[in-house]
Design brief:
Largest sheet: 6 strands, antiparallel
Oligomer: single chain
Order of helices and strands: HHHHHEEEEEEH
CATH topology of the largest domain: Alpha-D-Glucose-1,6-Bisphosphate, Chain A, domain 4
Helix content: 40-55%
Structural class: alpha+beta
CATH class of the largest domain: Alpha Beta
Shape: elongated
Radius of gyration: 24 Å
Length: about 180
């Protein structure tokens, strides 16, 4: 009986010491990862992908790269802490937000009602680059009207989306100029 108890205690201590060694390796590996690698790992967790550790998909060594599958472009610059991204976020701060991802430069709002609840809009913004020109932002503004107790899609309002884009770009340019003084 005592042999079994001693064996159980020894085995438990051995198992715990091995587990702690694995945690140390994981923290050391996390410190060496780039922002892109950490972002890809977050996307894997969010989408509940089950990929074995050491897979060529994770390392980018095979024909397929997980970054390509998740929409990461290796030449793509991320909008982390960008003036353009922050100005866009500030401009639509009155609307409820569904998703904000500074790493990919994407802002998605929830529906926002006005006109006494008869009209509502939803805006999707994507910061593409930091150049602050017309190609730097992609904005989609969706519109719906409340008719006969049902929300009816009215499609995208390109005119309003362009006005929002112009406003964001103008403010971002002014802010950049002021920060350089």
């Amino acid at each position: 009986m005592t042999k079994n108890l001693l064996f159980l205690i020894f085995f438990t201590l051995f198992a715990f010491s091995c587990a702690q060694n694995g945690e140390l390796k994981n923290t050391q590996n996390n410190e060496k990862k780039t922002e892109k690698q950490r972002s890809m790992e977050n996307k894997i967790k969010e989408n509940d992908f089950r990929i074995p550790q050491g897979s060529s998909l994770l390392e980018g060594e095979g024909l397929l790269d997980l970054g390509d599958l998740l929409g990461f472009d290796p030449s793509e610059t991320y909008a982390v802490n960008s003036i353009l991204f922050n100005v866009a976020l500030d401009k639509i701060s009155f609307m409820p937000l569904l998703s904000v991802d500074a790493n990919s430069g994407v802002i998605v709002t929830d529906w926002y009602s006005f006109d006494g609840g008869q009209t509502r809009i939803k805006i999707n913004i994507r910061v593409i680059n930091e150049e602050m020109n017309d190609d730097s932002l992609a904005i989609n503004l969706f519109k719906q009207n409340f008719e006969e107790n049902v929300w009816v899609d009215k499609g995208m309002d390109i005119t309003q989306a362009n006005k929002i884009k112009t406003s964001i770009l103008s403010s971002a340019r002014n802010l950049k100029i002021a920060s350089e003084l």
